[in-house]
Amino acid sequence: MGCQKVILETDAVALKQAIISDLYDYSSLGVLFKEIRAVLQSAFQSCKVETCPRACNISAHCLAAHGVCMERKSYQIWLDPFPSHVKKLVAGESSLPG
């Protein structure tokens, strides 16, 4: 897609730490975290990882849950128009008081 500068958001503080530091490199998933860092460094000019409480981004949580339910090794790309379930998620979130 040509993106060179990205910001990744997660509601998991430990995941952020695992991606931006070597704190979890000796854990059972350490190899995965090292690979994530290598891919992010080689694929993007800059990449920031931020934490955001789940309540502030319900749409992202629901989309991640959708991804977990997908068949193994399958993927979906949505550029435009977005599927109706995505539009409903975002529309519902934007109407929340806040």
Would you kindly provide a brief summary of this structure?
By secondary structure, the chain is of the alpha+beta class. The protein has helices at residues 13-20, 30-43, 58-69, 84-94, and strands at residues 5-10, 46-51.
Task: Describe the protein's architecture and organization.
The protein has a two-stranded parallel sheet. It contains four helices and two strands; from the N terminus they run E-H-H-E-H-H. The protein has 98 residues and is an alpha+beta fold. The protein folds into two domains: 1-52, no CATH class; 55-98, no CATH class. Helices cover 46% and strands 12% of the residues.
Poorly predicted ranges (pLDDT <50, ≥5 residues)?
none
**Total DSSP E strands:** 2
Give the biggest sheet: 2 strands, parallel
Distance between the termini: 32 Å
- Tally the helices: what do you get? 4
Order of helices and strands: EHHEHH
